[in-house]
Design goal:
Order of helices and strands: EHHEEEEEEEEEHEEEHEEE
CATH architecture: Sandwich
CATH class: Mainly Beta
Oligomer: single chain
Structural class: mainly beta
Number of domains: 1
CATH topology: Immunoglobulin-like
C-alpha cells in the first residue's frame, strides 16, 4: 500500500505561472524535508512554479508538476510535487536512464559555466552529468560533458514518497513528492569558488517526463522550442538567489 500525500496545495503561495525567472528564497536554517513538510510555513513561503509547457510529442497525460526552491547560502533545497497517473519506476542504479521512468529533473547553471542536470526518477534514483557544451556530437550525447562520479553524487541527498521500484505501473491518480539537497560544494568542483549564494543569478530549467511509461510525456518550466530536447540551455530561465 503506497501512502499518498495530500493533493497539490496551490492556495498557500502564488503560483508563478509563465514567469521567466524564479527567485530562491533564503533561509537561516536547513528546512524540513518537503516530501513530508510541503505544507509547512517555511515551504509555503517559497515561490512555487509549475512545469506546465508540454511538448507536442506528449500523449494526453498532463501531470500537474510544481516545484519550490530554498537556499541557506551553501545548500540548495528543491522540492517537487506531482499529481500524476501511469507512474512507473524500474531503474535503480546511479546513472541509469531514469528519464525512461516517471521522472523529475532540475538543470542548474552557475553564471558563465557548465550546468548540472539532476535527473531523478520517482523512486529516488539519479542521473547526473556536468554539461559544458550540449551541442549534438557524432557518437556521443553532447559535444563536451562528463559523468559526475559516484563520490560526488553521494553529496546529493534525495528523498521520495514512493518506493524505489514501482512496477507494475500505477494507473490510478497518485500524488508523489521528491526532494533534493544539493551542496554548493558540488557545483564548485566544476565551476570553481562560488561563495555565498545571495545576490547571484544562475540559469536553469525544470522538467517532468516519463519516456517509457504507458503515457509518455515531456514537460518543462520554460518552453524548449520545437525540438524535443531538454538539453537546450538557450531556453533556460533565470534562477535568482535572494
Amino acid at each position: 500500500m503506497i501512502e499518498q500525500p495530500s493533493p497539490p496545495a496551490y492556495q498557500d503561495a502564488a503560483v508563478e505561472r509563465g514567469a521567466r525567472a524564479y527567485t530562491v528564497r533564503r533561509v537561516e536554517l536547513p528546512p524540513p524535508d518537503p516530501v513530508h513538510a510541503w505544507g509547512s510555513a517555511i515551504w509555503s513561503a517559497a515561490g512555487v512554479a509549475r512545469v506546465e509547457h508540454f511538448h507536442p510529442s506528449s500523449t494526453s497525460h498532463r501531470p500537474v508538476t510544481q516545484f519550490r526552491l530554498l537556499h541557506d547560502q551553501r545548500h540548495i533545497y528543491i522540492g517537487f510535487e506531482v499529481a500524476d497517473r501511469f507512474v512507473r519506476v524500474r531503474h535503480t542504479r546511479l546513472q541509469d536512464m531514469v528519464c525512461q521512468d516517471s521522472c523529475v529533473e532540475a538543470f542548474l547553471q552557475p553564471a558563465g559555466g557548465a550546468y548540472l542536470n539532476f535527473e531523478v526518477n520517482a523512486g529516488g534514483t539519479m542521473l547526473l552529468y556536468c554539461v559544458e557544451d550540449a551541442s549534438p556530437a557524432e557518437g556521443a550525447l553532447f559535444k563536451r560533458y562528463s559523468i559526475v562520479p559516484e563520490e560526488l553524487c553521494r553529496m546529493v541527498a534525495i528523498s521520495s514518497s514512493l518506493p524505489r521500484v514501482v512496477e507494475p505501473e500505477i494507473e490510478q491518480p497518485v500524488t508523489w513528492r521528491l526532494s533534493l539537497r544539493i551542496p554548493v560544494e558540488l557545483f564548485e568542483h566544476y565551476a570553481g569558488p562560488i561563495g555565498e549564494l545571495s545576490g547571484r543569478a544562475w540559469r536553469g530549467n525544470f522538467f517532468k517526463c516519463g519516456d517509457q511509461t504507458s503515457h509518455p510525456h515531456w514537460a518543462s518550466w520554460r518552453p524548449i522550442g520545437e525540438n524535443l530536447r531538454f538539453h537546450a540551455p538557450e531556453y533556460f530561465g533565470d534562477v535568482l538567489f535572494e
